[in-house]
Amino acid sequence: MYPRFDLKKIDASLELFRKHFDSINQQLTTKRETFTPEMKMNIIEAYDFLNHLLGNDIDLFLPSGLHHLLELNHIVLCGTHPQKRQEYYHHLNETRKKFLHRIDKIKDWVLKHRKDEGAFKLAAGFYAKSLSKPQLFLEGNHRTGNIILNYLLLSKHQPPFIMSRETALEYLDLSGDIKYTDSENGFETAFKMPGHRKRFAAFLERCVDAGFLQDLQ
Known about the structure:
10 helices, mainly alpha, Fic-like fold
């Protein structure tokens, strides 16, 4: 039985990050789009959905669970309200096409390595493969990737990593290094990937926090 994410604590951490976003963004190597209240709300809805999946023991990387991976990205982008989904219809359809084109290689890698690979290397490996070029989703790869890597950490009996005001700068800069690495083409950039992934795995190991999980009853 997996623990559940504590939505109130995640919300509080992300809200503190949001309030200090401008000062954090000024320090980043690559500037980011503004982190809005709507983005935060959608992330919380995605974790609520993930709690439901965990409660039903759904394996996200088996063929029967892949549409739930895609749904996590849909929630991150536009939430769960039917009207918003209708507004995003064409965008979500294009996202689905890209996802179906990319997911098999990533899914196969996770299934091959998750039994014997350590939790932090597994989570970092997935994150690097989904975030580097060509990215898994059309948009929202950082936010969705963080949620899915936390699913992988929990599946290996490790706490999650939830971005906070204190960890945001290092997390976003490490993510930027990964994002601009081409994992499939270009020898020079692909050569850098193992180093990026190793640093990110070490970062996760330092920064995971069981305080973002509900106590098991």
